[in-house]
Design a protein that fits this description.
This protein has 199 residues and is of the alpha+beta class. It is 26% helix and 31% strand.
């Protein structure tokens, strides 16, 4: 998201349609994490591959019904991610109330940070891969609690930092993450042609 790119897009008749933030925060000793506070009646455990698949897909679809990619996941999409070498069910947390899945936080570990801060060496970095809460179960702090549970897991794994991706216009999520000391690291912008160009 650089000014010359925005100027070129405007000159060629393109309009901004989507801005994706990469947010980051440190996980070291100087970056303490609050204690997670789960809503009453909610318990959290690790995802069980083959057992939780359908329930997770249903919550994911409901939580991301308006998302252009995430809400359309299928059994095959989940199976592809589970087959990846980075998949670790210990870092995939599901929340239940009355034996029903109501939310989740799936973390990920990158072996190498592809965009390390200037002056630092690339090393492993954690990721808040996806956090979702079933509509109707939101509003009680469950998303924040699940986020903190995942962050504490990544911290316990010895990772120094964590990243996540979130749409700029997802105000609620951006507020939650910045409230947990995440800050913008990069911005990626999508443009769509409006059908005319300025000379």
């Amino acid at each position: 998201d650089l000014p010359p790119a925005a100027a070129l897009a405007a000159r060629l008749g393109f309009a901004r349609t989507r801005v994706l933030f990469q947010l980051r925060r440190p996980l070291g000793a100087g970056a303490p994490l609050p204690e997670p506070r789960l809503p009453a009646g909610v318990t959290v455990r690790a995802f069980v591959p083959g057992h939780d698949d359908e329930a997770w897909l249903a919550v994911n679809a409901a939580a991301f019904a308006d998302h252009p990619e995430q809400g359309r996941w299928t059994v095959d999409d989940l199976a592809l991610r589970r087959a990846e070498p980075w998949f670790d069910p210990r870092g995939f947390f599901v929340a239940e109330r009355d034996s029903r899945l109501v939310g989740f936080h799936w973390t990920k570990v990158h072996e190498v940070d592809e965009t390390p801060p200037p002056g630092t060496s690339p090393g492993p970095i954690g990721e808040v891969y996806v956090v979702g809460v079933l509509p109707g179960a939101a509003g009680g702090g469950l998303g924040r609690a699940l986020t903190l549970i995942g962050l504490r897991h990544l911290q316990a794994e010895g990772l120094a930092a964590v990243l996540l991706y979130v749409d700029e216009d997802n105000d609620r999520a951006v507020r939650m993450y910045t409230g947990l000391d995440f800050a913008v690291h990069t911005r990626d912008v999508s443009y769509r042609w409006r059908g005319s160009a300025a000379d």
